[in-house]
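User: What would this chain look like folded?
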Amino acid sequence: MDERIQHAKLLYESAVFAADEAALDTADSELDAVEADLALARGRIAHGRFLQRGTEYDPELFERALRLYRAADDLRGQAEALFWLGIFHQLVRRDDTTAVPSFSRSRELAAKSGDSLTLSYALRHLGIAEQRAGHLGTARDLLEESTRLRRELGFLPGVAA
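Assistant: Here's the prediction, encoded as structure tokens.
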């Protein structure tokens, strides 16, 4: 069982048996984080099905994750959820105009939170959008920065992609 769910159980017991008034609010916050992570994970699975089978999906899971991460002020989580919203629009809907703002904000938040992997993904997909728009110099710069980050992280499959 996820540690956070187990901790919520302990917080419940603290609230009920020890009259800890703050425990339930803490439990809610921790469970919201679990829910955000779960929504993001389910969204990725839906995207995997799209890639394998062409099964379209709704971006609601990514939007839900984003709302929960925002409520928790989790910048890293927001960056990842925004990246996946961008992926939905870029790859499923073929709409770079809608995707780019999500990728750009993901880039900002990933950099701010120190999430180099999500930053590398956001840069890569911004580069793809720039390439499609005919801005080859900018596209190259973004793709090179993405590759540099992936090398630093030792993410060799991402370098090869």
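The two ends are 34 Å apart (CA to CA). If you want, I can go into more detail on any region.
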